[in-house]
Design goal:
362 residues; five-stranded antiparallel sheet; five-stranded mixed sheet
């Protein structure tokens, strides 16, 4: 193992660089999503704000056009949560990311293989012809005598390669929306075999250097250490300050810890905050309870010097946009000014013709 030690500050700056948060990039939104692999999208607008924080001259219409052209889709991916990703990546990696069949479903149900196969066969037939909502598949399962319906309907979301149909909604998708098979929506079948090594390469490109536990927490895949070791000819290793073995792509850029990091406003569930099992490099331990709620919600966050220093909210109305910032402590005047500038930029991005208002909460 390489004896080079990467400090928490080194790892922070490398992560920010991989996440395009040291300097805004000039990529188109599809290329940006592929560089990040995907962006969490329980809230349809979150990927829009996430790309605004990372790209120069990014317009909401740029991403909407890609969604309407079906180059970008909303699908259940890592950790069973909705993400926005390129169509190519969903087709290539949905099978890899799909959870193991022996998983216990919500509400404590662990279906037998025979039951799960029967449910998924009905679900596939139901969603294949055209987009439908999940209430309808519950009704179909109930009509076939399956019980309990709710967790079994949830299984169709988890195990079938579904994508959400786009709409004329403000951010391209309704909060609930209708789903169909990826092959129906995109006109091509998904890759059938798992590709854990290819997925690990993509993870390291956007989140490395990393522990196997980081990759496992992000992807949900087991045997992460074995996957990394199988790529040993392509990877380089380091140590962190605790002596743990970190893996990274051999030729990846690794800026040093004293690289300046600008103020950034990140969207809800941002991958830069969520991508590692150990988040202490970007969230101070004393602030962790202020960021992650008991139900797993991760609010939009404020980065100062690469570390979460507060949260923020933005509400766009017809004639005004209100931005509220809650900082965890005192900050330098220059950082407060930079936060206000970013907030005004976010307001202009969401509603160019509306009057912005930025308020710092006590």
């Amino acid at each position: 193992m390489n004896d080079t030690v990467l400090t928490p500050r080194d790892l922070n700056r490398i992560l920010l660089d991989r996440q395009m948060l040291l300097e805004r990039q000039t990529l188109d939104p599809v290329a940006a999503l592929e560089r990040l692999f995907a962006m969490q999208a329980q809230l349809p607008r979150a990927p829009f704000l996430g790309l605004w924080a990372r790209l120069q001259n990014f317009r909401r219409q740029d991403l909407l056009d890609a969604i309407q052209a079906r180059r970008v889709v909303r699908s259940t991916l890592m950790r069973g949560t909705l993400h926005l990703a390129s169509a190519e990546d969903v087709l290539a990696f949905r099978t890899t990311i799909m959870p193991a069949r022996d998983v216990t479903l919500p509400w404590g149900l662990k279906p037998t293989p025979e039951l799960l196969d029967a449910v998924l066969a009905i679900g596939r037939e139901h969603f294949a012809p055209e987009p439908k909502d999940f209430e309808s598949v519950r009704q179909v399962l109930e009509a076939h005598g399956f019980e309990p319906v709710r967790p079994l309907a949830y299984a169709t979301r988890m195990f079938l390669p579904l994508v959400q149909a786009s709409s004329d909604a403000q951010f391209g998708h309704e909060p609930g929306g209708d789903f169909t098979l990826a092959s129906t929506w995109l006109g091509r079948d998904e890759h059938e075999g798992p590709q854990p090594q290819a997925l690990a390469r993509r993870y390291l490109a956007s989140h490395g250097p990393s522990l196997p536990a980081d990759f496992s927490a992000w992807s949900g895949l087991k045997a992460a250490a074995a996957t990394f070791e199988s790529l040993s000819d392509e990877l380089v290793t380091f140590k962190d300050e605790r002596g743990r073995k970190l893996y990274d792509l051999r030729d990846a850029a690794r800026p040093v810890g004293d690289t300046p990091a600008p103020v950034r406003l990140l969207a809800d569930f941002d991958g830069a905050v969520l991508c590692r099992a150990d988040r202490t490099g970007i969230i101070r331990p004393e602030h962790a309870p202020l960021v992650a709620s008991k139900n797993g919600l991760i609010p939009a966050t404020v980065l100062i010097n690469g570390v979460v220093a507060g949260t923020w909210r933005i509400e766009a109305k017809k004639k005004s946009v209100a931005v509220s910032v809650r900082l965890f402590g005192k900050v330098a005047a220059k950082d407060r000014k930079a936060i206000e500038a970013e907030a005004l930029s976010a307001a202009a991005f969401l509603s160019p013709d509306a009057k912005p208002n930025v308020a710092f909460e006590a």
